[in-house]
Design a protein that fits this description.
Chain lengths: ~550, ~375
């Protein structure tokens, strides 16, 4: 009666009837796919809001004297822009949305390990998001997404609201991390050993511990900031014996790993998209999987590279500098592997593939300018300038956001059951790609020439390149607008998606688009890596997935 | 099931042509960064050890450009050479290679070597900056305020505002701190910066090597007018900007002159270091004369001795205690000497703007007593 398959199928091996009624199905759903889509939609809504804030920033900077909004409003705008992009857009989309929708399908599970916890994680997120934006109504924080005290102690009352909101998002992502780790350890289909797991899941597996461990440091820092602001407990105020530097340590102990939370899952997505459209096995599967782990681990030991000018003891700077350089090695391995995957391929230029290839180029650039920053001597020059802004936008926009678009074009047919329009996709791509480079490339030399970041007005000699940057950002925004039009139109009128429009080989493509509530009629058995295009698919037990046969609840 | 294995591709002529082009481009980038004037990305360097940072930058820029060209070069070449063609059967697949251990070894070893070189080089420059600089140079101090810098020099009383001067070719030990929030002291031409953290003293050591005027730039967000703490912005919305400050490197003779000027000007200035008192400040024995001198130094940038309505940044302060039109102070309390002292102690942010607090204005309790005596004496 109890077969191995059933054990491996774990908690979700048993099929519960699909809940009826709109609310249970689409609002308080416990289905990982619906929850993932909820994450995606919410994340995209916040992308629009935070993107509008970005355009206020770039419009202000069109002129050296600013003048579009007041200094104080400007400071609130960029603070919420950064906080929202990190915590309400990128992290929820790369983990909560794509992790939720795709990971259980790829490992052959029927849901995540704790579906109710999953629902809770999701519902915390929009609440926290609304709290964050509501801080505008009461005097939003002004000291950027990093909120260094003592500035953050002086910021408007909304700063406490900000701390509470980010604390909640942190709780939400910690729960997601726990859920994903347990799911991947316990619920892989029989035969899916770790060395047969798709690279997207490996990337989620590397990310989840970061979500669980790093986020707790952030939570502690935020709680301390909240207590200091509301109840006067002196953690950070130097006039009362607190230490502003302590905040920086706690904040970056979270926020450097957060950089990898934001990009590792997209590394995983790229590792699925490139082989699919090159019709080739991923080059160096083991090295790519292993390097994700290496990056995640090393990511915990480099936080003070953000603090080289804060007054660290000089000798302390050395280990942080050298360890940060070292991360370039496993990262490089990934990028070389992706490029090598193309060699000898049969490359199909879908929108998804174009975004994936742009990801490779843009992130390489962002990674390289980051190596400059790891070098203490050069960092002393450019820390706190637009060089930093240029660098991390290449990583987050050229990397994470480009990866999000690549993933959306790739997986939209699977979860929405409709194809996105390829022509609009290409228009989106070119506007976005040109816009990104135009916006963020000049920021590097603006910074090294002398322009500090977080300024509502600036030295007039920098105006020309700022104008280029602002115009670039409008082009980029136009591209994103085309994307949303594409999504909205295709959702209703797009071509119906076949189960496997791209000829991809991971499990999610072997079942209908969109998948049934229970994902698999039978939990399949896996006996190989999914990337070998010359071989038959390495799965058994999928024969009935695309037929009308009823689901087999108990027996597998 | 797909069975049409694509023919095994060997490294053909196209590959070697592409490799040659990529190698030449990478070489060109290396040559470019070795010889170009860095003026395109950085202002000309004007201090040691800033020059060593520039050499390190050339190395990093050359290596990074070469790597970028290699990655992007092969990416683009493969994209063109291995595109699916219309003539391909729809189920055509690529060469089924899974890895190549030799290649993987190489692309681990070469970056590792580069990282080793970069580490050694960076440590060397780090040593020049953090350890090797002379410790016996001219000791100067800069204090960050919202939103300007002040400076202290040995044997000059009180604080210097406006420009700071340094003699050329003489080692400097510069200590920085803050009177309020975190600021950061940066002179782009010197390639050095240090955060100004309240309660903490950070030190940078350097030797200016070129006579000239260099803007001082704050690079840590410090409130509303953070953007104005930057040279080259002498006015803002039609008003003088106290945060537009320069570091001027002088010949020794010019420096002497400037230094003497301040010694005389500040002969009677208070050396008090900012303290933040919490209790009520005793106003007994306030000296209006001393208060007047202090007012000229610390308050006149924002206040005129004129009626309330005549603003500079803050309101005019004449007749504060008996102005029938303004019986109350801006914080709504009755105009009494004790309440004036409270505003000086805690600062106040109202409709007009931000009145800095005691620490930000760098006032001792005695200073406050003197200022209140002076302000009360104005009828
Ligand atoms: Cu970091
Ligand atoms: Cu500042």
């Amino acid at each position: 009666m109890s077969t191995t398959a059933e054990h491996a199928g774990g908690i979700a091996g048993h099929i519960h009837p699909e809940p009826q009624g709109f609310i249970r199905r689409y609002v308080f759903s416990i289905d990982h796919k619906i929850i993932g889509i909820q994450y995606l939609i919410t994340g995209f809504v916040f992308l629009v809001l935070a993107g509008l804030l970005a355009e206020i920033i770039r419009t202000q900077l069109l002129h050296a004297n600013g003048g579009f909004v007041s200094n104080d409003v400007y400071n609130e705008v960029y603070s919420i822009h950064g906080s929202a992009m990190v915590w309400l857009v990128v992290i929820p989309i790369v983990t909560g949305a794509f992790g939720n929708i795709i990971m259980p399908l790829q490992i052959g599970a029927r849901d995540v390990a704790f579906p109710w916890l999953n629902m809770l994680s999701f519902w915390i997120f929009p609440v926290a998001g609304l709290m964050l934006f509501s801080s505008f109504l009461m005097g939003a924080p002004v000291a950027g997404w990093t909120e260094y005290p003592p500035m953050s102690l002086l910021g408007g009352p909304g700063t406490s609201m900000w701390a509470a909101a980010i604390f909640l998002v942190g709780v939400s992502s910690t729960l997601t991390g726990i859920n994903f780790v347990v799911t991947m350890f316990q619920m892989r289909a029989p035969g899916m050993t770790f060395t047969r797991m798709p690279l997207f899941c490996w990337a989620q597996l590397a990310t989840a511990p970061l979500l669980m461990i790093a986020t707790t440091a952030l939570a502690a820092a935020l709680a301390a900031l909240f207590m200091e602001r509301q109840f006067g407990v002196p953690f950070f105020d130097p006039t009362k014996g607190g230490s502003p530097i302590m905040w920086q340590h706690m904040f970056w102990f979270y926020s450097h790993p957060a950089v990898y939370i934001m990009v590792l899952p997209m590394f995983g997505a790229i590792s699925e998209i490139i082989p699919t459209f090159a019709r080739k096995p991923i080059f160096g599967y083991k090295m790519i999987a292993f390097s994700s782990m290496a990056i995640a681990l090393a990511g915990f030991m480099v936080w003070a590279h953000h603090m080289f000018t804060s007054g660290l003891a000089p000798y302390l700077q050395l280990p942080f500098m050298i360890l940060t350089f070292t991360i370039a090695i496993p990262t490089g391995v990934k990028f070389f592997s992706w490029v090598a995957t193309l060699w000898g391929g049969k490359i199909h230029y879908t929108s998804s593939m174009m975004f994936a290839l742009a990801f490779v180029a843009l992130f390489t650039f962002g990674g390289l300018t980051g190596v400059f920053l790891a070098a203490v001597p050069f960092d002393l020059h450019v820390h706190g300038t637009y060089w930093i802004v240029g660098h991390f936008h290449y990583v987050l926009v050229g990397g994470s956001l480009t990866g999000i678009f690549a993933s959306t074009y790739f997986w939209f047919p699977k979860f929405a059951g409709r194809m996105l329009n390829e022509t609009l996709g290409k228009i989106h791509f070119w506007l976005f790609f040109i816009g990104v480079n135009m916006t963020f490339l000049p920021q590097h030399w603006l910074g090294s020439l002398g322009m500090p970041r977080r300024v509502p007005e600036y030295d007039p000699q920098f105006q020309t390149w700022n104008d280029v940057s602002s115009i670039g950002s409008y082009i980029m925004t136009l591209g994103i607008l085309v994307f949303f039009v594409n999504v909205l139109v295709s959702m209703r009128n797009g071509k119906k998606a076949p189960p496997n429009p791209w000829g991809a080989r991971t499990l999610e493509w072997q079942i209908p688009s969109p998948p049934h509530y229970y994902n698999f009629k039978h939990i399949p058995t896996v006996f190989g890596l999914p990337y070998d295009f010359s071989q038959p698919l390495p799965y058994k037990g999928l024969e009935e997935e695309l037929t009308d046969s009823p689901v087999h609840a108990g027996a597998h | 099931m797909v069975e049409n294995r694509a023919p095994a591709t060997t490294l053909g002529r196209g590959f070697w042509i592409a490799t040659t082009v990529i190698a030449l481009l990478a070489l060109a980038a290396i040559v470019f960064w070795s010889y170009t004037s860095l003026r395109i990305v950085m202002p000309p360097v004007a201090a040691q050890p800033g020059g060593e940072i520039d050499v390190l930058f050339r190395f990093m820029a050359a290596t990074a450009s070469a790597i970028m060209i290699v990655v992007a070069g092969y990416l683009i070449y493969f994209m063109i050479a291995f595109r699916a063609r219309k003539t391909d059967p729809p189920d055509a697949i690529g060469v089924q290679i899974h890895d190549n251990h030799k290649l993987e070894l190489w692309w681990t070893i070469i970056p590792t070597l580069l990282v080793v070189i970069l580490s050694v080089w960076s440590v060397k420059v780090w040593y020049a900056i953090q350890i090797a600089q002379p410790t016996n140079g001219l000791v100067v101090e800069s204090i960050g305020h919202q939103w300007y810098f002040t400076f202290r020099y040995p044997q000059i009383h009180g604080e210097i505002t406006g420009e700071m001067h340094l003699p050329v070719n003489q080692p400097v030990v510069m200590n920085v701190t803050s009177a309020d929030v975190i600021h950061s002291f940066w002179v782009p031409q010197f390639r050095l910066k240090a955060d100004m953290v309240p309660g903490l003293i950070n030190t940078i050591r350097f030797t200016p090597t070129k006579v000239g005027r260099y803007p001082i730039v704050c690079t840590e967000f410090c409130g509303t007018n953070h953007g104005l703490m930057s040279g080259n912005m002498p006015t803002w919305q039609g008003k003088p900007n106290p945060g537009a400050q320069y570091l001027v490197v002088d010949t020794p003779a010019d420096f002497e002159k400037w230094y003497h000027g301040w010694q005389v000007k500040n002969a009677h200035a208070s050396d008090a270091i900012a303290t933040v008192s919490t209790g009520t400040i005793s106003l007994a024995g306030g000296d209006a004369k001393a208060g007047q001198a202090l007012f000229a130094q610390k308050c006149s940038a924002c206040h005129a001795i004129a009626p309330f309505s005549q603003r500079v940044v803050g309101p005019g302060l004449k007749g504060l205690l008996d102005d029938p039109q303004h019986p109350n102070l801006v914080d709504g309390d009755k105009a009494t000497p004790a309440n004036i002292a409270t505003i000086l102690q805690n600062g106040y942010k109202g409709d007009i703007g931000q009145m800095p607090n005691q620490a930000a204005n760098n006032l001792s309790d005695k200073d406050i007593a003197n200022l209140v005596a002076y302000l009360s004496s104005l009828k």
